[in-house]
Write a structure and sequence with these properties.
The structure holds 2 protein chains of 2 kinds. Chain A is mainly α. Chain A has 9 helices and no strands. Among the domains of chain B are: 45 residues; 89 residues, 2-Layer Sandwich (Phosphorylase Kinase, domain 1), CATH 3.30.200; 193 residues, Transferase(Phosphotransferase) domain 1 (Transferase(Phosphotransferase), domain 1), CATH 1.10.510; 101 residues, no CATH class; 123 residues, Serine Threonine Protein Phosphatase 5, Tetratricopeptide repeat. The chains are: A mainly alpha, B mainly alpha.
């Protein structure tokens, strides 16, 4: 059993420390993959979080152990990590733009072109954090669906709730976040 | 605000979200008095601009098309060439038609400018070196790479032979070429791929778009090795591009490529198989269009490929199902097997099998797949295997009879010869391929005997009066197989030792005259001799057993006189030492066999040093360590003994970890644990002993549960129960001890035809049971079991090797136990 599968099993069984051990492993792998993929955007590929996270899972957990439940739980963990990666990246870009002394690596040039221009990741991240402070369920649904690429059903499995609950949280979070992000002043 | 407040907000928002404005206001007004803040928040949400469809629902990264992203370079110069026009855009960049500027003649070329990545100037040297490797490929069906380099803005470009043509699928569609023509065209492509593989260059992205056919019908493969050239990470290269993701064409990428494993020639064979599928049916094997990558991956890795003949409809323009059914189906499915090892070993083998099909000969693809299908069936349904085998045998019977009849007709001699070899081939397929396919399956022992015995009948018919060496070899090997299934004590068998000895002697008689002429026959002969030796030993005939092993040693020495480094002959020599050491008659004193074991160990150690990953060499070293450890134990060299057994256990644990389905490795590991347990027990480390025996029993139970008909496995399970029961007895854990010993006796009594070893085991188990019963105050039962032990019949015989010691001590224990059973009665008088 690979480390990741083992940690996932522990985490699923309620061991919160397992998650803390899991994240650095997942982070390193996803970070590498994300850098890798974000360079490819010029080629017309559409990068889907599902594909990225799935690849990370195959590499970390191993093909033979890709049980459905483990996969969904992994996606859950990966969603958190993806969020961090994108926000970190957006921060670095911002810092570079401000001319804070850092020079843009060519790598980041590729990254910069790749990000969805319609989304301000830093603002989204902050809004999501505010949402999580009072409505953790809806915030987690956004994290899983948007950053982890999970479907409604997979999100439901990951959270242990009914799909209808996921849909309700999703609708509410979307409208709440949209209001936060479009509010002026 | 509390989270309770926000839960109410979410609930209320959910209730009003789908309502029209009037209804919504009415509902909100109703709630206002109870929860004014909740209502205010919901009103604010409703009043805000609603999020668009795209909000949070688009993938968070997207890119434009490569052409948009890169301005056209038409009209510019690249190296010595001027770019004339764009003739295509692909995964990695843009392809231009270009002309040489400086020459006095017009050389037309195609130039691919790779816009997907940029290189540092520093990595140019490496790019050039790799490019030169590719430029060395000269084959009529491979598009030649002429030149390459970096453009001013750091993009790699590759100059290639300019080919005017259509992608192969489009060409076939337009020309309406028949199946045979398409197969021959495909063979040419295979030969080109084979040529590149011989130069260690793998394409990695074979697909119709990369294979053009010129108007004259000549196929040309584009982009050979380019995928690797452009995507493999390499030192000094600034940014590598997409890795597997880019090179991945759904359907054409093999399952292992999809998983991101390193590229190999097997990927190209797979892609060729998919290409053949598409050339024959007009479709790709899996429906992946528009599906997300992870679903595509799951499909390719898990879903069985359809047969091409099942895909084409009866009205298909590509082929009629009847043209594909059988051979062609088998060839395609073998090429696109999910397991690389089951595919054709090379593009050439694939081409050769198509050649055989076109020539009307039997194709290689069908034989293993038959065995494979049978094995797959067997896994699902044991009863079904027996039925399938019977029907195979029935077909064979029909063929065999017609052979005999047809052979009489002189006029049809040629045809008869053909049939004769067909039957021979089928019989051999049955004995070797199918038997081997079924053998690893649990519960297969009776089926194996049936397979081998039936096939043997047909070989016997064919062999009558033959002096053909090859046929004698086949027959000898077949007899060896059946003897093994009947009763070779070294593995799963049916317990018929006498039948086994007869089969082995028949094999030896057939092989001996041929052995001097044929190396194959010599080795087959020694294998039969070893099996005979093992079986004779189990029957209590040690002298004859040793004689058989010594004859094998003579053969090995003769071979080594010709070539002292001959690995197979060295292995044979080690094996001959091994058997002589194992079978050495007792009476010559303990530890007498140690020098022979050491000799065997030296031979196997030297072989393992030459090939440390070879599972066979690992096993041999572990096996000798086990036996040598046992001898050291006997002479009281405990440290040596423990060291040898631990070494064996370590190697065997590795073997089990590497291939958990390997029964032999599991058996070996079970044995290691019981030996270690025995040593600990002798040292008085009783707890360690019990733990080791528990591990040994667990291993035995796993083995027995998966093959309950196997007599040998049952005997060893009984033994494992017995030694664990004994260890619990030592620890004074009497109830556990009794239950394990009773189970041991029950299992031993249920064996079909226990050999001497089995009988000694049973007697010993009864003695142990009576000992623990005495400790537990169950004296009368103890004496009953001793009487039972005395009737097993081990007193008036002699066993071979280490067994004799067990036999004598058990017999003595029975005598002594019975004496003390009488003693309490007499003590009452005294």
């Amino acid at each position: 059993m690979s480390d990741v599968t083992h940690l996932l099993a522990k985490w699923r069984d309620g061991d919160a420390r397992a998650f803390d051990e899991l994240v650095p492993l997942v982070y390193a792998q996803l970070r590498q993959l994300a850098d890798h993929y974000l360079q490819m955007e010029r080629d017309g590929h559409t990068l889907q979080p599902t594909a990225l996270v799935h690849e990370a899972y195959l590499r970390l957990a191993g093909q033979n152990e890709a049980g459905f439940n483990n996969r969904v739980h992994f996606y859950g963990a990966a969603a958190t990590v993806m969020r961090r990666i994108l926000v970190d990246h957006a921060r670095r870009r911002l810092a570079a733009k401000r001319g804070s002394g850092q020079t843009l690596a060519e790598l980041d040039e590729g990254l910069a072109a790749g990000l969805d221009p319609q989304v301000d990741f830093i603002a989204l991240d902050e809004a999501l954090t505010r949402l999580a402070s009072h409505s953790p369920g809806p915030a987690r649904v956004v994290e899983l669906r948007y950053f982890g690429g999970l479907t409604v059903d997979e999100t439901a499995t990951s959270l242990g709730v009914a799909p209808i609950t996921v849909k309700r949280h999703w609708a509410f979070a979307r409208v709440w976040l949209h209001r936060e992000l479009t509010a002026t002043g | 605000m509390s989270s309770d407040h926000w839960r109410q907000v979410e609930d209320l928002y959910t209730r009003v979200a789908g309502l029209d404005a009037t209804e919504r206001s009415r509902l909100l007004d109703q709630q206002r008095a109870d929860a004014p803040q909740v209502v205010a928040e919901v009103e604010s949400l409703v009043a805000a601009e609603p999020p668009g469809e795209q909000f949070l629902s688009t993938p968070w990264v997207s890119g434009g098309s490569p052409v948009e992203a890169t301005p056209s370079l038409t009209g510019r110069s690249v190296g010595a060439f001027r770019l004339i026009e764009i003739i295509g855009t692909g995964g990695m960049g843009v392809v231009y038609r270009a002309e040489r500027e400086d020459a006095g003649f017009a050389q037309q070329v195609a130039i691919k400018v790779v816009t997907a990545a940029r290189w540092h100037r520093a990595s140019l040297k490496q790019l050039t070196a790799e490019r030169q490797l590719l430029a060395a490929l000269h084959h009529p069906h491979i598009v030649t790479l002429i030149d390459g380099g970096l453009t001013d803005d750091g993009h790699a470009y590759l100059v290639m032979e300019y080919v005017e043509g259509l992608p192969i699928t489009a060409w076939c569609r337009e020309r309406h070429v028949d199946v045979a023509t398409r197969l021959r065209l495909f063979q040419q492509i295979c030969s080109a791929v084979q040529y590149a593989h011989r130069h260690s260059i793998v394409h990695r992205d074979l697909k119709p778009g990369n294979i053009l056919v010129t108007p004259d019908g000549v196929p040309k493969i584009l982009d050979f090795g380019i995928a690797r050239l452009l995507t493999e990470p390499a030192e000094g290269r600034h940014q590598t591009t997409a890795g597997w993701f880019r090179a991945l064409t759904p359907n054409y990428a093999s399952p292992e490529q999809m998983r991101g494993l390193p590229a190999s020639a097997a990927d190209d064979v797979y892609a060729l198989g998919v290409l053949l599928f598409e050339l024959l049916t007009g479709r790709v094997p899996y429906d992946t269009a528009g599906k997300p990558l992870d679903e595509v991956l799951r499909t390719v890795v898990e879903q069985p490929a359809p047969r091409p003949s099942a895909v084409v409809g009866t009205s298909s323009r590509w082929a009629r199902p009847s043209e594909l059914r059988g051979d062609v189906d088998a060839i395609v499915l073998k090429a696109i097997d999910k397991e690389p090892a089951r595919r054709y070993g090379s593009a050439q083998e694939l081409a050769d099998d198509i050649g055989r099909h076109l020539a009307g000969q039997g194709v290689v693809a069908r034989e293993p797949s038959f065995a494979y299908v049978l094995a797959t069936l067997a896994r699902r349904h044991r009863a079904l295997v027996a039925a399938s085998v019977v029907s195979v045998v029935a077909v064979l019977a029909a063929l065999g009879v017609s052979v005999v009849q047809t052979r009489r007709a002189v006029a049809e001699r040629d045809r008869a010869d053909q049939r004769f070899s067909d039957v021979r081939r089928l019989a051999n397929t049955l004995i070797f391929d199918i038997h081997d396919a079924v053998q690893p399956l649990a519960g297969s022992t009776p089926v194996r005997e049936k397979i081998v015995a039936e096939a043997l009948k047909y070989l016997e018919v064919l062999a009558k009066g033959t002096e053909d060496d090859a046929l004698r070899l086949e027959l000898g090997a077949a007899y060896h197989r059946i003897g093994t299934v009947q009763g070779n004590p070294s593995g799963p068998n049916l317990g018929d030792r006498t039948g086994a000895v007869n089969s082995f002697r028949r094999a030896i008689a057939l092989l001996a005259p041929t052995a001097a002429r044929s190396r194959d026959a010599a080795f087959e002969l020694t294998r039969a001799q070893f099996s005979l030796a093992a079986t004779l030993s189990a029957l209590g005939q040690p002298e004859e057993a040793v004689r058989a092993a010594r004859e094998a040693q003579g053969i090995a020495e003769r071979l080594l006189a010709g070539d002292a480094r001959d690995a197979a002959a060295r292995r044979l020599l080690g094996t001959a030492y091994f058997w002589q050491a194992t079978l050495a008659p007792v009476g010559s004193g303990e530890g007498q066999s140690i020098p022979m074991w050491v000799k065997a160990g030296e031979v196997f150690e030297s072989l393992l040093a030459d090939g440390p990953d070879d599972p066979d060499r690992q096993r041999n070293v572990a096996l000798v360590a086990k036996y040598l450890g046992e001898q050291y134990r006997k002479i009281g060299a405990v440290d040596n003994a423990l060291a040898q057994h631990r070494r064996a256990q370590e190697i065997d644990a590795q073997r089990v970890a590497r291939t958990p389905g390997n029964r032999q490795a599991q058996l070996d590991l079970a044995l290691d644990w019981s030996s270690l347990g025995g040593l600990y027990r002798e040292q008085g480390q009783l707890r360690e002993a019990a733990v080791s025996f528990e591990r040994s029993l667990a291993a035995r139970q796993r083995l027995a549960a998966s093959d309950p008909d196997d007599d040998y496995t049952r005997g060893r399970l009984a033994h494992a129960h017995a030694i664990l029961g004994g260890a619990y007895g030592d620890l004074n854990r009497l109830p556990e001890a009794l239950s394990h010993l009773r189970e041991a006796v029950r299992l031993s009594e249920s064996r079909h035809q226990p050999d001497l070893e089995g009988r000694i085991d049973l007697a010993q188990q009864l003695v142990d049971l009576s000992r623990v019963e005495t400790m537990a105050g169950l004296g009368s039962r103890a004496c009953g079991h001793l009487v039972q032990a005395s009737r097993v019949g081990i007193a008036d015989t002699t066993a071979s090797g280490s067994l004799e010691g067990n036999r004598q001590s058990t017999a003595a224990a029975i005598t002594a136990g019975l004496a003390s059973c009488r003693a309490p009665g007499t003590s009452g008088r005294g």
